Automatic annotation (TrEMBL):
Name of the molecule in the record: dTDP-glucose 4,6-dehydratase
Keyword Cell cycle: no
Domain NAD(P)-binding: start-end pairs: 3-323
Sections of the chain in a coiled coil: none
EC number from the UniProt entry: 4.2.1.46
NCBIfam families named among the record's database cross-references: dTDP_gluc_dehyt
Class of enzymatic activity (EC top level): lyase
Amino acid sequence: MILVTGAAGFIGSNFVLDWLAINDEPVINLDKLTYAGNLDNLSSLKDDSRHIFVQGDIGDRALVDKLLTNHKPRAVINFAAESHVDRSIHGPEDFIQTNMLGTFHLLESVRGYWSNLADAEKSQFRFLHVSTDEVYGSLSPSDPAFTETKRYEPNSPYSASKAASDHLVRAYHHTYGLPVLTTNCSNNYGPYHFPEKLIPLMIVNALAGKPLPVYGDGMQIRDWLFVKDHCSAIRRVLEAGTLGEVYNVGGWNEMPNIEIVKIVCGLLDEMRPRADGKPYIEQMTFVTDRPGHDRRYAIDATKIERELGWRPAETFETGIRKTVAWYLENEEWVKTVQSGAYRNWLETNYSGRS
Ligand code: NAD
Ligand code: DAU
């Protein structure tokens, strides 16, 4: 049994779907179901007893203590977070609450549980914290890619709150001996990505005939990784990572935002041409830049490859084609997300499941 937090969100739901597709070890999914939590993502597990969903907050000590005592997981994987940089600029408080305080309370509950385990279980236990490359700050064009020893220089309330959580996780290892692992990953894309983030927003806006807003000059660079590859990296780190270590995860795929928009538009031109025959790129529009916008992120994923033998399976070319195809095949999912109807899922489908 493993406890996965935030597994109704984008990466967490992909992680649980993949996990249960390749092994039978049950999962407790603890998710608060914020606007980003969507049980529609896990509808294929509706009648699957290996998936136990519990609606709740990682900061709710009584609830987390109870879950740990009752289910005795051998690992906790912490995806739960407020994840959107723009939202953190407009309202940082939820980010401090969940990413910092929530992670602190979760660590305290886990520490209590872990310290009372019998020796054999204690040495097998793992707490894997899922974090981001944004904690390292912004690179100039000539800087080397982020390695695990790069100084933390977070620039947004989101990245600062994630940096704080990373530091707490590290401290719980050094101070209490908690068996932790941390992963810092670059930008994910793929199925179930909430359409507030660049790639899904461009796909759904393009199809709806809406503008495709590019911040500033569109020359900001990100490293992009297909979400299933991030999930396989996490499984690998959980299985073989060295306790207390940090692993950078990335796709070796740096690209300016404007290039991403062009690629998405090109795929849509091919797979779902506009009714008027014009190219989707005509919908692109430059808008005011994000305040404090980081110019470049780049991940050096040498350590995870060298020490754990992990490499991404998808190139950007194959991953983005699968992603655009997924959105074209799952227009109902998009409609439900956009209408807010997914928020009724719990009442209609999951009552009494926890
Ligand atoms: P997401 O916003 O899609 O999902 C977050 C999930 O956490 C949601 O289901 C939400 O309901 C849940 N949640 C939020 N607050 C909670 C709380 N207090 N208690 C319990 N559940 C709560 O995010 P995502 O993109 O899937 O990211 C997951 C994790 O991966 C985050 O920690 C994020 O920082 C990290 N990460 C994301 C990316 C990316 O590109 N998306 C890259 C690197 C790291
Ligand atoms: O690097 C990892 C991070 O990637 C994760 O930790 C975050 O949780 C995740 O949201 C993501 O952060 P970004 O800010 O990089 O992702 P976003 O999709 O919001 O933006 C990607 C880039 O595209 C960024 O430079 C801002 C730009 N952008 C974004 C949107 C939504 C636009 O130009 N237009 C837009 O409409």
